[in-house]
Amino acid sequence: MLHLRAVCPQEKTASALGILRAHAGTAHLVVHRGAAVEPAGDLVEADIAREAADEIIDALCALDLDHTGGITLEALDTALSDAADRAEEAAPGEAADAVVWEELVARTGEESRLNVTFLAFLTIACLLAAVGVLTNSAVTIVGAMVVGPEFGPLAALAVGLVLRRWDLVRRAAAALGIGFPLAMVVTLGGALLVRATDVFGADAFRLERNHDVDFVFSVGVPSLVVAMLAGAAGMLAMTSAKSAALVGVFISVTTVPAAGYAVVAAVAGEWSRCLQSVGQLLVNLLGIVAAAAIVLIVRRNGQRSAVGTRPLSRG
């Protein structure tokens, strides 16, 4: 269940109540007359089935409440109520399969912002990847995968392309287009410092000896398959609120490690490996976005089909 709060101008409260009353997925409808101060109006609250959320929000936005008032949603961990049980049973489908599109847009939009935190995580991840390459440590490479924050902008790219939200596309492209080069430049400085001080030993830059991390730069069909599977799993996790599954997505793709490997290979003068690593990075980025977009298209079409058979009235 989700808890819905809507600030309504008084002249629109009756219409908002009508929408909520008419939908079988609504429970615990409450109205606080004149409770809203800024913007002024009434406060309407209800618990709604996740499967019903997208349709209800669309109807409330059609009243222009997102501009003249406000609409917020929050997840409910527990709802002990027969009315809530009836609402969930009346809404067709399963909560885990329901996509709340406005929630998805808001979430991916927030995670795709180019800010200091994003740049710091991406830079640290690239530095970890470079250390993993220099020390021939697959464990450190996996650590870099987990730290990397790049899936947020990649998911935002897919959402923006499918929903034609070009503001999301621009924001995500900026985060990736600025973030990766900046992180790689910082990593380049670190790699040059390591080489100058010889802190990791004389053989650290002999990459032909580091067979445990060869998977980072070995680009090919398997790389594309893994990237697409990861992109599909990641988007499924985001659209079904199964956020724990995202950790598996981070570990399965070699975006950040490929960037770190490319830098180390360039410092070592291994230009073939450097170019292969850049290719690995591009293949993974494109594969993730493509698969995520396909998942969104399939889920969007499926949800539209379900709306045609959804009972809107309580009878």
From TrEMBL:
Indicate the transmembrane segments per the record. 116-135, 141-163, 175-195, 215-237, 244-269, 281-298
Keywords (A to Z) from UniProt: Membrane, Transmembrane, Transmembrane helix
Against Pfam families, the record matches this protein to: DUF389
Q: Which domain of life is it from?
A: Bacteria
Task: Kindly provide the name given to this protein in its UniProt entry.
Answer: Integral membrane protein
Source organism: Amycolatopsis vancoresmycina DSM 44592
